[in-house]
Amino acid sequence: MDKQRVTRVELAAWGEGDFWLLERANAPEMTDHLGGPESTEALERRHRRYLEMAKGGMFRVVAVDGGEGVAGRTVGSIGFWEREWRGGQVWETGWAVLPEFQGRGVAAAAAGAVVEAAREAGGHRHLHAFPSVDHPASNGVCKRAGFVWLEEVAFEYPKGTWMTCNDWRLDLWEATEATEAAEAPDAATAPDAAE
To answer: Which residues have C-beta within 8 Å of that of residue 159, sequence separation ≥ 6?
Structure first.
């Protein structure tokens, strides 16, 4: 039976009870492109960081659709956070989709939702994603979500482990500027201020 696609998701703010999701995503098949599984202590520190994040946010991804047994379930995680990059501050995003929900469009739907969350948060013009060059699924998500590929970069993750990643960037202001321009009154039809 074909898996039904998930086209809509909701982002639920990361909570105290969400540690299980970090544990599930810490499997070798889920961390192969990230330097491998982390220790329990490292996961606990990550959980605390997510709970105490002052800028940005971490979320559980909850499917809105996708068929019986999928809608309403937590299917992964995604977030955005502040980082220094190329001499300035940007937002960075990253995600994890649980194995049983992979291949259904979850990551692309979640990426679209996190773009909106980062846009609403303001503060930075660009949202970056840095998937491994060897991870075609995550690179495909970036492309489907509207990110633009910039270049391959050396990236340290986790600390002490270097990998080659693609730098994907999305301009958060571009869509906002286009929307504002479309909503602005047309000069030809705008009332004359002198009348």
So the answer is: none
CATH of domain 9-125: 3.40.630.30
Tally the C-alpha atoms within 13 A of residue 14's C-alpha that lie toward its C-beta.
22
Q: Kindly state the tokens that stand for 16.
A: 């105290």
Indicate the pairing of strand 126-129 with strand 88-97.
Answer: parallel
Non-local (6+) Cβ contacts of 185 within 8 A are none
- The Cβ of residue 88 has, within 10 Å, a number of other Cβ atoms equal to 10
Q: In the predicted model, what is the mean pLDDT of residues 117-126?
A: 96
The DSSP symbol for 132 reads B
Distance CA 86, CA 175 (A): 23
Domain definitions of the chain by residue range: 9-125
**Res. 186: pLDDT tops 80:** no
Query: Would you give the end-to-end CA distance of the chain in angstroms?
Result: 67
158 cis-preceded (ω within 30 degrees of 0):
yes
The CA distances from residue 34 to 19, 55, 65, 96, 162, in Å, are 19, 23, 29, 11, 10
Total residue count of the chain as it appears in this document: 195
Q: Tokens 């709970």 — which residue?
A: 51
Mean pLDDT of the region 38-59: 95
Q: What is the mean pLDDT of residues 116-128?
A: 96
